[in-house]
Amino acid sequence: MTPLFSLLKGVKNLEKPFYITIPTRNTVLVEKTGFINLNKDIKLNNVLFVPDFSCNLISIHQLTNDLNCTVTYHANYCVIQDQTTKRTIGLCDLHDAVYVLKRTTQGTSLVVVRRDATTLWHARMGHPSTKTLQKCLSRLLKCSFDFNKVDCCDICHKSKQCRLPFNQSDNKARKSFALMHCDLWGKYRTASHTGSHYFLTIVNDHTWDMGLLIKSKNRSCWHLDEFLQYGKNTI
């Protein structure tokens, strides 16, 4: 709401005027509404014109709904950010226990290409492959980068592993079929020459291991049953 009629644009009369109570405990009639453009990113809709009010107030609930933004409060300031891009579209400073919206000016973004710029962009863009990174940077920034100098990224190695390796163990089965290890790998996007998409590994902790190519995951149970029967006959 605002007491300044000059700030409002698209002013129209309310079909059903209503009364509100202002901080002075007086009840005033609201008859007009409009919108205000604070900057190119913040447009306030349905702003109430209240001549008897002494300041401009913004409803955070309406602001976040209309602009699809988030408001983060800190001890001495708050930040208004676009929900999708996370770009800052407004800043507020704390004055007398009230957050006051600042007038912001648009700055200029600079791209500084340094020796380790490729590694920096690799981290900023979510650790893509070198091929994807090269395509994105060449199209978006139109700068030259040396993609041969991308440092070895520990995050990439760890995030692309299903799990960390097991600790080394000296324990070993003393006889065949006393301890077995099984692992099913797949589904791989490209089928083998036999039409298989999965690889079943069976390890006999005492002596040997074997691998089987299978066409579907449900065939793994059949192969395990067959292998267990083979183990019983061998023992």
TrEMBL record:
Domain Retrovirus-related Pol polyprotein from transposon TNT 1-94-like beta-barrel: residue ranges: 9-65
Keywords attached to this entry: Hydrolase, Protease
Domain GAG-pre-integrase: 99-161
Chain ranges passing through the membrane: none
Pfam families documented for this protein: gag_pre-integrs (PF13976), Pol_BBD (PF22936)
GO MF annotations, alphabetized: peptidase activity
Keyword Protease attached: yes
Biological-process GO terms, alphabetical: proteolysis
Protein name as catalogued: Retrovirus-related Pol polyprotein from transposon TNT 1-94
